[in-house]
Design brief:
By secondary structure, the chain is of the alpha+beta class. A hairpin with a 6-residue loop joins strand 19 and strand 20. It has two domains: 7-83 and 148-215 and 306-367, FAD/NAD(P)-binding domain, CATH 3.50.50.60; 90-144 and 217-304, 2-Layer Sandwich (D-Amino Acid Oxidase, Chain A, domain 2), CATH 3.30.9.10. The protein has helices at residues 14-25, 60-83, 120-126, 148-163, 206-209, 272-285, 330-347, 364-367; strands at residues 7-10, 30-34, 48-49, 89-90, 94-98, 116-119, 136-140, 144-146, 166-169, 173-178, 183-188, 191-193, 197-200, 216-226, 239-242, 245-249, 254-258, 294-304, 311-313, 320-324. The strands form four sheets. The protein has an eight-stranded mixed sheet with strand order 6-7-5-15-16-17-14-18. The chain has a six-stranded mixed sheet with strand order 9-2-1-13-20-19, with helices on one face. It catalyses: glycine + O2 + H2O = glyoxylate + H2O2 + NH4(+). One of its GO terms (molecular function) is glycine oxidase activity. Its EC number is 1.4.3.19. Pathway: Cofactor biosynthesis; thiamine diphosphate biosynthesis.
C-alpha cells in the first residue's frame, strides 16, 4: 500500500490520535496504523493531570508537564466543538495526604501554580472522611483530571474520523524497513506500507519494534468502585494522591483506584497481591471506600524509559519522528506532545524543550537494554 503523500502514525492509541488530529487540523494528510485500539495505555490510565502532585522536580520535565496542563482547557474544548462529545475534563484539584509530617512544608512551585500545605485540621476540613493516619497534606488547586477511558479517547477517535484521518485498524507493523539514513517502508500483516514521514507512537511496545529506542513495559493493575445511591452528594470531589495509591473520583460517582507498579514484562492479568495492596492503601487514605461496590478490574502497560522521561523528536532515521516513553504521564502530556511534534514534522521547528527528551541521550550500553 502506497500512501506516499501521507504522514504515517504507527500506533493508534491516545498519543497517536492526538497527533493525528493536530496534524490534520494543520492541513496534513495523515494515516494511522492501529494494531489494537483497545490495548493502548490511554484506555487504562486514571487520567490525572498532575505535574505538581507527582512531585516532578524543577526542570524540563516539570516545564513540559505544566505547559501541557495549561493547554488542556482549550484542547478539550476544541475536541468537544469538533465532535459534540464530552471529554470529561475536570479541573478539580489534587489533594496529597501524608502520614508523617515532612521536614519542610515548603516546596518549589511556579507563582501561578500554588502548592498549599494543610495541617491535620485544615486537611480534614478541606476533605472530610480521610483516614485517621493522615496528619496533613498538600493541596494542588491547578492540577486536574480527565476521564480518558470513557470519554477522551472516544472524543479523539471521533475527531480524527470527522476530520478525515485515515485509520487502518488491525494493522500490525512487524518491521521497519530502513537503510542507514531513512525509513523506506513498513512491513505489516497486510503487506508493505510506505509514506512520506513516519511518527512512532507505539507506547510500551516500542522497544520490540525499534530496539535502538529503549522503551519497555511496566505493568499497572487498577480497579473502580461506585458511590452508593444512598449518598446525596459525592463524598469525594478532588483526586487523592497518596503513597503508592491514587483515588480519582468522576462526576458520575465512579471512583478509579490505582495503580501497581510492576516490572513483569508483558505479563497480563490481575493478581491477588496487586488487588489487595490497592484496596488496603485506598481504604487507609479514604475509609468510606470499604463499603463501595466494586465495578471493574483492569491492567495495562506503561511505556517506560531508563530515566523515566519521554523520548520526543528526532530518531536514528531522518524521516522517522518519536513520541514514545511517556511513562506515568501520557494523558497529561498528550496536548504538548501533539503540538511540539506537529511543529517539528511540518515546520522543522524544534522547541528548546525537545533537546532534553531526544533519543541520543541514552548511551550505547543503555541502547542494548
Amino acid at each position: 500500500m502506497n500512501v506516499s503523500d501521507d504522514i504515517i502514525i504507527i500506533g493508534g492509541g491516545l498519543m497517536g490520535l492526538s497527533l493525528a488530529v493536530e496534524l490534520k487540523l494543520r492541513g496534513a494528510n495523515v494515516t494511522v496504523l492501529s494494531r489494537n485500539f483497545h490495548e493502548a495505555a490511554g484506555h487504562v490510565a486514571a487520567g490525572m493531570l498532575a505535574p505538581q502532585a507527582e512531585a516532578i522536580p524543577p526542570g524540563p520535565m516539570l516545564e513540559l508537564g505544566l505547559r501541557s496542563r495549561s493547554l488542556y482547557p482549550q484542547w478539550t474544548q476544541k475536541l468537544e466543538q469538533i465532535t459534540g462529545l464530552d471529554t470529561s475534563y475536570w479541573p478539580c484539584g489534587i489533594l496529597a495526604p501524608v502520614y508523617e509530617i515532612p521536614d519542610t512544608t515548603k516546596i518549589d512551585h511556579p507563582a501561578d501554580s500554588p502548592a498549599i500545605w494543610l495541617d491535620q485540621q485544615a486537611i480534614n476540613q478541606h476533605q472530610p472522611g480521610l483516614g485517621a493516619d493522615v496528619v496533613g497534606g498538600w493541596w494542588f488547586p491547578q492540577d486536574a483530571q480527565v476521564d480518558n477511558r470513557r470519554h477522551l479517547v472516544k472524543a479523539l477517535q471521533a475527531a480524527s474520523e470527522k476530520l478525515g484521518v485515515k485509520t487502518l485498524e488491525g494493522v500490525e507493523v512487524q518491521d521497519i524497513i530502513r537503510n542507514s539514513k531513512a525509513v523506506e517502508a513498513l512491513e505489516t500483516n497486510r503487506g508493505k506500507i510506505t509514506g512520506s514521514q513516519y511518527i512512532l507512537t507505539t507506547g510500551a511496545w516500542t522497544g520490540q519494534l525499534l530496539p535502538q529506542v529503549p522503551v519497555y513495559p511496566r505493568k499497572g493493575q487498577m480497579l473502580s468502585v461506585k458511590v452508593p445511591e444512598s449518598f446525596d452528594s459525592l463524598p469525594l470531589k478532588q483526586v487523592l494522591f497518596g503513597t503508592e495509591i491514587y483515588v480519582v473520583p468522576r462526576r458520575d460517582g465512579l471512583i478509579v483506584i490505582g495503580a501497581t507498579l510492576e516490572d513483569v514484562g508483558f505479563n497480563v492479568g490481575l493478581t491477588p497481591d496487586g488487588v489487595q495492596s490497592l484496596l488496603w492503601r485506598a481504604i487507609r487514605i479514604f475509609p468510606l471506600l470499604r463499603d463501595f461496590p466494586i465495578q471493574e478490574f483492569w491492567w495495562g502497560f506503561r511505556p517506560t524509559t531508563p530515566d523515566l522521561l519521554p523520548i520526543l523528536g528526532t530518531s536514528p532515521f531522518e524521516n522517522l519522528t518519536l513520541a514514545v516513553g511517556h511513562y506515568r504521564n501520557g494523558i497529561l502530556l498528550a496536548p504538548i506532545t501533539a503540538k511540539l511534534i506537529t511543529e517539528w514534522v511540518l515546520e522543522q521547528k524544534s522547541d528548546p524543550l525537545l533537546e532534553y527528551f531526544c533519543w541520543e541521550r541514552f548511551s550505547t550500553a543503555q541502547l542494548q537494554y
